[in-house]
Amino acid sequence: MTDEPLYRPTSDSQTGTDTVDHPVQRGDGVELHQRPDGDTPRLTTAQGVPVADDQNSLKAGARGPTLMEDFHFREKIFHFDHERIPERVVHARGYGAHGYLEVTEAIPELTAASLFQKKGNRVPAFVRFSTVAGNKGSADLARDVRGFAVKLYTDEGNWDIVGNNIPVFFIQDALKFPDLIHSVKAAPDRGFPQAQSAHDNFWDFISLMPEAMHMVMWTMSDRAIPRSFRFMEGFGVHTFRFVNAEGQGCFVKFHWKPKQGLQSVVWDEAVKIMGADPDFHRRDLWQAIQNGDFPEWELGVQVFDDAFADDFEFDVLDATKLIPEEQVPVRIVARLVLDRMVDNFFAETEQVAFCTQNIVRGIDFTNDPLLQGRNFSYLDTQIKRLGGPNFTHIPINAPKCPFHHFQQDGHMAMHNPKGRANYEPNSWAQGGPRADPDAGFRSLAEPMAGDKRRVRAEDFADHYSQARQFYRSQTAVEQEHIASALTFELSKVETPEIRERVVSHLPNIDTDLAKAVAKGLGLTKMPKAQKPAKEPIDLPVSDKLSIHKNQRANFKGRKLGLLVSDGADAALVEALTKPVKAAGGLVEVVAPVIAGVTLSDGTLLAAQQKVDGGPSVLYDAVAVVVTAKGATQFAAMHPAKAFVADAYAHAKFIAYSPEAETLFDAAGVPQRGDGMVSLDAADEAKAFLDACKALRFWDRVA
Ligand code: HDD
Fold first, then answer.
1. Cα separations (Å) of 161 from 7, 90, 93, 237?
2. 652 with 697: CB under 8 angstroms?
3. Which atom of ligand 1 is closest in space to residue 148's alpha carbon?
4. To the nearest whole number, what is the mean pLDDT of the chain?
5. What's the average model confidence in pLDDT over 588-614?
6. Sheet of 609-610: strands edge to edge?
7. In angstroms, what is the span from residue 356 Cα to ligand 1's centroid?
8. With 60 as the cut, is the pLDDT of residue 285 above it?
């Protein structure tokens, strides 16, 4: 053994400009060809010192101990050790994108918010979508509420609308939030289950909180398993205030309506997607934006006055209630477009800090006790998560308008005030910023009075009427999904008393629903119905609450999964894929091997998925174009059989070349019928695409 260093940098390796490739000997004979050249920057330490060798730590002898003085080693490992910050206590798993909000209708009569003063005004936006219960590494398709948090960088400061894809919430008072979240997250003794509400603790809590029943109808509906972030609505949930330049206020609720339409998956698909592609939702957003298919939402407002609020059946400060669009129509005032992915996930998506307290002139809070509590929680949590009060210095959180204040110091302060004045009033010539009584933020001068008490307002007491309205506003298929979801979740509950207590709420919502769930659970008798604090009333059906009633007949942004075998008819493949692409859809080829298949005309069709990596749950519709031989081969492969069997069970539109019959028979797919298009002639491919616009052939499973 020798004490000679095994690798000594040559003098030209220090210049960083040498383009001649001198292999670096690692010492064990492995040659590394990574050296800086004209385009590749030189590796440095965080202090900017060029690094000569990033393969070997500094040792006393080739086989000796590592030396303490190896500052490169210590800096690299120290930094790695500190890479993690606490994940969000809720909404840990999320995915963000940049875009803009453009005002399509000026509303100065309603609000003094500068962005709404003129049609065409545009402000940059950052949006983060999320699930609530699971940790950062959980799967995208968990049955859960989706966060829909929007940060608008207006020219009068940042305005955050920290909403969800469901317009109501589980609880009425923020004091109960920790209990709600503790109950849904992994149980503290066993550390599971992860990212799901199907367990005893959650349903125990819910069954003791009748106010949650409306929200539970939503989370048991397909709203909680969206097809992608692009196909879901967003809601500000609470009632907020608009305040105009004259200081007059009105109430407002915010809505995000996807231009892409609404779409969800079915539960069996969700379960399988979580295995096949746990990143299904983030991949979808990434692909759409990278392909230039920018998702877009309309910003709508429901505006109403005190007189409406006084007459409304429920309290507008109660976040477990919504205002049906039939009662107060949604007025579209802007559009939100997402057109750019982040440069760096951690810097932007992870470090973005949404706070409900971030509002701008022209917007104000109401006394909704959930919103009031949130205003404390978000600011507080950012300090924990981002390490100090200067999280607004992180570029993603900093306003994009000028800002001047006397806040200073603290961890990681990036911009301290210049000059001597760091207080006011002061009498210095360069005395720093001053408050502006004319243009500054002012709260609505709303009269307040009342006894200091821990109390819930009496008109928060009706917990079932809107749950009933929601359920009855769904199509038969959607109602069946709610009953199945409740049955599934409660079947995971181990304690019979908890199952029965949940069911005992359902007769107050709908007796057929109660019966379906009781039957699904095998209950021998219907539990006695809970006595409501306030008798529920029958409200009119609200079509806007249904997904199926509000779909847009469109295949744009959707995906066709094309299962092909070697020798497949090239003309048919072309006839199928061309109109899908023309309609703004995507085609993914699923083949026996990832290299693809050779079509009948000898061309190579590259595959995006090998058959066991591309199950049909990843697609909105599927097509099977095979030769007789290919069909026989697929008929012997479980993933190929599952591909067609699942597509059939999930009510998807299926196109197939006649040879595919062998595969369908082997997969146990019953006779074809509607929603399945046999491609005997190429022009039937067009008919198939037209059918696909309906997204699912629900009659098959109804
Ligand atoms: Fe919350 C995060 C939405 C009630 C406390 N919440 C968080 C996020 C969204 C929501 C979308 C993720 C933001 C992001 O992407 O960074 N939360 C809601 C909605 C609610 C709601 C729509 C009811 C209408 N939340 C709520 C209550 C409390 C919190 C009642 C506490 C009293 N929420 C938090 C939090 C989080 C959060 C602990 C975790 C991470 C964060 O704030 O930044 O402060």
1. 56, 17, 18, 10
2. yes
3. 11
4. 94
5. 98
6. 609-610, 586-591, 559-564, 621-625, 654-656, 676-678
7. 8
8. yes
CB of 378 closer than 6 angstroms to any ligand 1 atom? yes
CATH superfamily placement of domain 94-173+228-393: Catalase core domain (2.40.180.10)
Nearest CA to ligand 1 atom 12: 91
Task: Kindly name the residue from 121, 158, 164, 165 that is annotated as catalytic.
Answer: 164
d(CA 211, CA 369): 14
Mean pLDDT in residue range 51-77: 96
Q: Is the CB of 304 under 6 A from ligand 1?
A: no
CB 306 within 8 A of CB 317: no
Provide φ and ψ at 107, rounded to 5°.
-135, 50
At 457-477, the pLDDT tens digits run: 999 999 999 999 999 999 999
CA angle in degrees (0–180, nearest 5) for 129-135-136: 60
In a 10 Å sphere around its CB, with 0-12 CB exposed, 13-18 middle and 19+ buried, how is residue 545 labelled? buried
- Tokens standing for residue 349: 């998506």
CA distances from 584 to 26, 293, 556, 689 (A): 50, 8, 4, 12
- How far is residue 125's CA from residue 116's CA, in Å, rounded to a whole number? 15
Q: Report residue 234 as tokens.
A: 């967003």
Q: Is 422 a catalytic residue?
A: no
- The arithmetic mean of pLDDT across residues 88-106, rounded, is 98
CA of 142 from ligand 1 middle (Å) equals: 18
The CB of 180 under 6 Å from ligand 1? The reply is: no
Does 89 sit in the ligand 1 pocket, CB within 6 Å? yes
pLDDT at 255 over 50: yes
Percent of the residues in the chain that have a pLDDT greater than 90, as a whole number: 90
How confident is the model at residue 574, as a pLDDT?
94
What is the reported pLDDT for 99?
98
- Report the alpha-carbon distance of residue 455 to residue 271 in Å, rounded: 42
Model confidence pLDDT, tens digit, residues 422-454: 999 999 999 999 999 999 999 999 999 999 999
Nearest CA to ligand 1 atom 42: 378
**pLDDT > 90? residue 125:** yes
Question: Which single residue is written with the structure tokens 């919430």?
Answer: 169
Assess whether the C-beta atom of 370 lies below 6 angstroms from ligand 1.
yes
Q: Residue 2: its pLDDT value, please?
A: 43
Q: How many residues can be counted in the chain?
A: 702
Ligand 1 in contact with 319 (CB < 6 A)? yes
CA 392 – ligand 1 centroid, Å: 18
Q: Is the pLDDT of residue 361 over 80?
A: yes
In Å, how far are 102, 163, 325, 357, 656 from 154, measured between CA atoms? 11, 18, 28, 15, 52
CA distance 327 to 462: 18
pLDDT at 7: 41
SS3 501: helix
Q: What is the DSSP string of 534-585?
A: S--------GGG-SGGG-----TT-EEEEEE-TT--HHHHHHHHHHHHHTT-
Topology of 1-83 in CATH? Cytochrome C Oxidase; Chain J (4.10.91)
- Bin 577: left if φ > 0, else alpha if -120 < ψ < 50, else beta: alpha
- DSSP readout, 402-454? --------STT---PPPSS--SSS---TT------TTTS--------------
358: annotated active-site residue: no
Q: Which of 87, 89, 162, 182 to mutate to test the pocket of ligand 1 (most atoms within 8 A of CB)?
A: 162
Identify the CATH class of 554-700: alpha beta
Question: Is the peptide bond between 433 and the residue preceding it cis, with omega within 30 degrees of 0?
Answer: no
Domain residue limits, the chain = 1-83, 94-173+228-393, 554-700
On the question of pLDDT at 5 being above 90, the answer is no
C-beta of 93 in contact with ligand 1 (< 6 A): no
